Amino acid sequence: MLIEGQVVIHERLGDEDQRLRKLVLKGPIAQTAKAGQFVAIQVQDFSISSFDPLLRRPISLAGISSERDEITLLYRIQGRGTEILARAKCGDKLSVMGPLGKGFSLPDEGELWLVTGGIGIFPLYPLAQSALAQGLTVRLFWGGENQSFLESAGLSSWQGLGIPIHLSTLDGSLGQKGLVTVQLKELLEKHAISGGKIRVATCGPKKMMQAVTDLCLDYKVPVEVSLEERMGCAVGACLGCVVTLTDEAGTLIHKKVCQDGPVFQGEEVVWDESC
Amino acid sequence: MSPVDFTTQLAGITLRNPLLTCSGTYGFGEEYTAYCPLESLGGITLKGITPLPRLGNPVPRLAETPAGLLNAVGLENPGLDEFVKSYLPKVRMLPTAAIANISGFSLEDYVQLARALQKDSGLAALEVNISCPNVKHGGMHFGTDPQSAQEVIAAVKAETDLPVIAKLSPNVTDIVGMARAVQLGGADALSLINTLLGMQIDIHRQRPVLANTFGGLSGPAIKPVAVRMVWQVFQAVDLPIIGMGGITTWQDAVEFLLAGATVVSIGTGNFVNPQAPLEILKGINDYCAQRGFASVRDLVGLAHN
Ligand SMILES: Cc1cc2nc3c(=O)[nH]c(=O)nc-3n(C[C@H](O)[C@H](O)[C@H](O)COP(=O)(O)OP(=O)(O)OC[C@H]3O[C@@H](n4cnc5c(N)ncnc54)[C@H](O)[C@@H]3O)c2cc1C
Ligand SMILES: Cc1cc2nc3c(=O)[nH]c(=O)nc-3n(C[C@H](O)[C@H](O)[C@H](O)COP(=O)(O)O)c2cc1C
Ligand code: FES
Fold it and tell me: What is the pTM of this model?
């Protein structure tokens, strides 16, 4: 659907150095949304309409509240579009298309492990919430630049969920020093011995998701990955956002991140062909 | 105020209104239905097809520019057989006119496509893309050389009983010469314009942004070029024109009609606002009603008087 979402909250998230923002919009999108889906939001100078920047920006749903008719978007100011978006004030109305794409799926039973790096954490919070509501065990592996980043990007709300959390930072300022995949491998190894049922969901830098997928394949654990690609239409009409996958016969095929994704089965993705 | 007459004749087909959507920006018709009901459109132009399936170019395929979009999709499509088998049955059921868009790398490609697509397919017309800038040794050769353009259109015309629309490339010095050539080839209508060849360089990575290096520029940035070409061709050639290139608002659409387009087509504008076609129709209606035009046909070419 296309809505004029009213800005209810728009604020800095954590340290200003991190350039992170929280944007809460009122509108009916939450009613049908699920974790892993995204919206395409128009970024404009809100005082006067213009066609520069031209395209909508894809942003994941980081919070879905159907009772309050609200969605939460968490984003990093990355370039001109998000810079302009950051100027929207409470009460402003933003044109939002969504919910778009297909979200993550939840296993019927067992454990859901969330593995993420950087701001790839954002779409995982509503996923953790639905998994917990369904009685699944949830575990988080999260890697970031440093302590300031992890704290700015919402560590305390994750801690509020009361789930096991394995942190890593590149500089060792919080959690284990190094990459998130080190701890993931250790735990996969343990579970391989105990034989628990696990599903992994991952979102973050491409290299990390590729490494996570490789590990999961080694340990025969199903993994869903959330991909990014530049978008034009965001509804599957322009073929701008394709990702290369292999089908059952091993043939290379294209699917659209906006419509068929952004969540795909990790083992299908041909990483070298994708951005 | 009596209602404004929107019915439009184009190359022997009757359209509900003079508003189409552009090839490559509207999929095969099903993608935008949640935003814009197809029955409100005069018609849609389908994604370009080639005889064989194509995966197209690697990503990134898109780059945003000031008020514009560069694309290098590279004609990704399911190929003729799959189109006929899996897409056409759904396309025939769409509640609006559907125009197929065909592309080729040789004269034989165009002939093969035209032969397979006849009136009984349920399509309203064939748009012949002789102008795709995104494929190597591709259609653009036909779109920049008048002699080849005429031959392609004549060959297509000889194979199909559908009305034939020639889609011209703006990447030429003499658009009127191209229009005259396809008219000689027997074209029933013209589509103006396809994308302008461009590129963008990432100054941080010091590399082209698009994997294909070059892409086709569309969106508001190209509108003045498109309006100029519609204007020139309207003066020189007696064929109906489908005007496109940057139409995003009703004012843009009116500008194309005044320049001489019988029909207008929305492409990149759908990405900006998926309800753009609805808003544009309403805007044209109000413009006509307020100024006492009984029919949108009264606007066509009016700026030339
Ligand atoms: C499905 C999806 C979900 C996303 N969710 C989030 C989120 O929850 N939070 C968040 O901070 N960011 C998210 N992103 C990335 C976000 O869309 C980009 O950071 C944003 O578009 C940058 O726009 P800009 O104008 O500020 O940057 P610029 O770099 O100036 O953008 C120029 C162009 O490149 C595109 N672009 C730039 N970076 C990306 C990227 N990483 N992915 C796709 N296109 C890009 C822009 O859309 C624009 O068309 C998501 C991307 C996708 C595809
Ligand atoms: C993503 C994209 C894909 C396109 N694919 C095709 C195509 O397959 N065949 C074709 O004739 N034109 C294609 N075009 C060109 C459009 O049909 C249109 O001529 C052009 O974009 C100018 O109109 P606009 O500025 O309204 O988009 C494509 C354009 C875009 C943006
Ligand atoms: S953005 Fe157009 S197909 Fe995905």
Answer: 0.96
